[in-house]
Amino acid sequence: VGVHSPDRTLIPEFVKALEIAGKAVWLVDANASPLDGRPVHPSLEGAPALDGALIVTSPKHALAAVEACLQAKLPKLWLDTRGDSREAADLAREAGIPCVVEACPLTTMPGVSWFHHLHGRIARWMGRVREV
């Protein structure tokens, strides 16, 4: 959710890592064009059954993205907004949805560069990465 993010350059790497992990990817953004030839859907409406959402957007759009995920009844969320998204995370948690906040998803995904693995090891050692 949120392909039109502040740092869209990482989106293809997120997609690749999710697919390596065996996940189907459904890209969602009301304002985005196709990404590397992949369709980008305007909403979660019509999405297949999803395990959860990786929300990559600016903090000002995070609350709306979480609301859309709650409406779609997604069971878990990961918020990567590169900023303060406490209000959005609180909304998810109040609804009983597990939510990881402000930890780079690439630190926990397979098939990513050595830098992300190293960052993940350091973050886990420091207790800063929680897995949903």
Task: Show the helix and strand layout.
Layout: H1 11-20, E1 53-56, H2 59-71, E2 77-80, H3 86-94, E3 99-101, H4 114-125
Parallel strand pairs: 1-2, 2-3
Instruction: Determine the strand fraction and express it as a percent band.
Output: 5-15%
- The helix content, as a percent range, equals 25-40%
CATH topology: Rossmann fold
Strand order of the largest sheet: 1-2-3
CATH class: Alpha Beta
Count of DSSP-assigned helices: 4
Describe the largest sheet: 3 strands, parallel
Q: Would you identify the CATH architecture?
A: 3-Layer(aba) Sandwich
Would you tell me the structural class of the helices and strands?
Answer: alpha/beta
What's the number of extended β-strand segments?
3
Taken together, the total number of domains comes to: 1
Give me the strand/helix succession: HEHEHEH
CATH superfamily: NAD(P)-binding Rossmann-like Domain
The 3D shape can be described as globular
First and last CA, distance = 17 Å
Question: How would you characterize this protein structure?
Answer:
By secondary structure, the chain is α/β, with parallel strands linked by helices. The chain has a single domain, classed as Rossmann fold (3-Layer(aba) Sandwich). It contains four helices and three strands. The longest helix is centred in the middle third of the chain and has 13 residues, at 59-71.
